[in-house]
C-alpha cells in the first residue's frame, strides 16, 4: 500500500497574512491634550499656544499715543507668557516705569500749572512740545530762551531814558550829607572822605535807588556827582554862617543850632566843639580858599598827637571849645546841655567810624 506524499517544506519567507492598508501616521513628539469632541456649530476651544498665535495675528498696530496735555496715553503690554528664562543685567522697563513718574502724570500736573498761570493757547502748545522733546532738545530751547531774554533786556535798556535822580533822593542826600559833616568821627571835611561816607549810606539804605545802579557807571557817576555838589553847598553854607557869627559875636551854642537847621541833628557838646574848631580856623585864615584844607590839617594834627587815645582827643576838643566860649559872647550866660545825639546821627557816626551796620528803621 502506497504511503501518502507529504508536501515539501517551503524554505522561503513566511507569508504574511493579508491586512487592510491604513495611511501611515507621523510620530507625535509629545503628549497633547485631547481635543474635545465638538458638534456642528459649537465653539472650538484653542489651546493656550494656539490662542496666543491667533491673538498675535489678529492684533493690529497700536495707535499712536495721544500727546495733548492732560490726556493719559494707553500702554500696551509687551510680554506674552512670561516664560523667558534669560535674565538681563539691566533693569526691566517695568521697574524703570515704576521708579520714575509717568509722562501722563507729569503732563497732567503741568497742565494744571499752565492753567493757573493763564498761558495763551500758543504758549500751551509750546509747553506741550517741550515735554515731548528730548533732553538735549529741551536744553537747547532753554538756552535759546535765555539769549532771547537778554536781547529783550538790552533793547529795553537802550530804549529807557537816561537815569535821573529823584527829588526825594536829593533830599536824602542833602540831609545825610549834613549829618556826615557834623559827625564827631569825621576825619576830613573835603575830598573823597565825606563823599564816600554818603555813598556808603546810600548803598545800605537804598531809598529809591534802582536795583544794581551802583554797577551802572554812568548812572552811579551822576549820583556821586550830586553828592559832591551837595557837600560843597553844605560846606559853603556852614562857612557863611561862621563868617557871620564872627561879626555878630554869636555864642557857639546858637551858631551850632543855626548850622544843624533844618536837619534832625541835635546840638551836642561834641558838635559844638567841632564848630568851635571851624570858627577858630576861620579867624586864623580869614576864610581863604584853603579854609577847609586847613581844618583837615588841624584834624590830622590832633589825631597824630592823640594816637589811639580817645581821651586825648576829647581833651583837645574840650580845650578848643573852652577857648571859643572865652572869646565870643562872653557876656551871655548859656549852658550847653550834654544831650544824646539823634538816632540818625548815631548811625551816621557808626558809618563814619567804620561800623557799617545801618538800620532802615527811623524812629
UniProtKB/TrEMBL annotation:
Residues 81-91 have a biased composition (Acidic residues). Residues 1-16 have a biased composition (Pro residues). It comes from the Eukaryota. Residues 1-100 are annotated as: Disordered. This is Uncharacterized protein. It comes from Psilocybe cyanescens.
Amino acid at each position: 500500500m502506497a504511503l501518502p506524499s507529504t508536501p515539501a517544506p517551503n524554505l522561503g519567507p513566511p507569508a504574511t497574512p493579508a491586512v487592510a492598508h491604513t495611511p501611515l501616521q507621523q510620530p507625535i513628539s509629545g503628549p497633547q491634550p485631547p481635543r474635545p469632541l465638538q458638534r456642528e456649530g459649537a465653539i472650538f476651544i484653542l489651546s493656550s499656544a494656539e490662542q496666543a498665535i491667533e491673538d498675535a495675528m489678529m492684533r493690529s498696530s497700536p495707535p499712536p499715543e495721544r500727546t495733548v496735555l492732560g490726556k493719559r496715553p494707553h500702554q500696551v503690554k509687551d510680554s506674552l507668557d512670561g516664560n523667558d528664562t534669560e535674565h538681563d543685567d539691566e533693569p526691566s522697563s517695568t521697574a524703570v516705569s515704576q521708579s520714575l513718574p509717568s509722562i501722563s502724570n507729569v503732563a497732567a500736573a503741568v497742565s494744571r500749572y499752565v492753567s493757573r498761570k493763564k498761558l495763551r493757547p500758543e504758549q500751551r502748545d509750546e509747553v506741550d512740545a517741550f515735554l515731548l522733546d528730548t533732553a538735549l532738545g529741551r536744553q537747547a530751547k532753554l538756552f535759546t530762551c535765555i539769549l532771547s531774554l537778554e536781547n529783550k533786556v538790552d533793547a529795553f535798556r537802550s530804549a529807557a531814558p537816561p537815569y535821573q535822580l529823584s527829588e526825594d533822593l536829593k533830599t536824602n542826600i542833602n540831609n545825610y550829607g549834613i549829618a556826615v559833616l557834623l559827625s564827631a568821627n569825621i576825619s576830613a571835611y573835603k575830598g573823597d572822605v565825606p563823599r564816600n561816607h554818603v555813598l556808603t549810606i546810600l548803598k545800605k539804605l537804598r531809598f529809591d535807588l534802582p536795583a544794581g545802579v551802583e554797577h551802572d557807571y554812568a548812572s552811579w557817576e551822576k549820583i556821586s556827582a550830586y553828592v559832591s555838589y551837595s557837600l560843597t553847598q553844605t560846606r559853603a553854607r556852614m562857612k557863611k554862617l561862621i563868617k557871620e557869627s564872627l561879626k555878630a559875636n554869636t555864642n557857639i551854642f546858637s551858631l551850632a543850632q543855626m548850622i544843624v537847621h533844618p536837619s534832625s541833628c541835635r546840638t551836642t557838646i561834641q558838635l559844638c566843639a567841632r564848630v568851635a574848631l571851624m570858627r577858630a580856623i576861620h579867624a586864623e585864615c580869614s576864610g581863604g580858599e584853603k579854609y577847609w584844607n586847613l581844618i583837615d590839617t588841624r584834624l590830622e594834627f590832633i589825631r597824630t598827637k592823640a594816637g589811639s587815645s580817645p581821651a586825648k582827643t576829647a581833651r583837645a576838643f574840650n580845650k578848643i571849645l573852652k577857648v571859643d566860649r572865652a572869646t565870643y559872647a562872653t557876656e551871655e550866660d548859656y549852658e550847653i546841655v550834654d544831650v544824646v545825639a539823634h538816632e540818625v546821627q548815631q548811625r551816621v557816626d557808626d558809618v563814619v567810624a567804620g561800623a557799617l551796620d545801618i538800620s532802615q528803621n527811623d524812629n
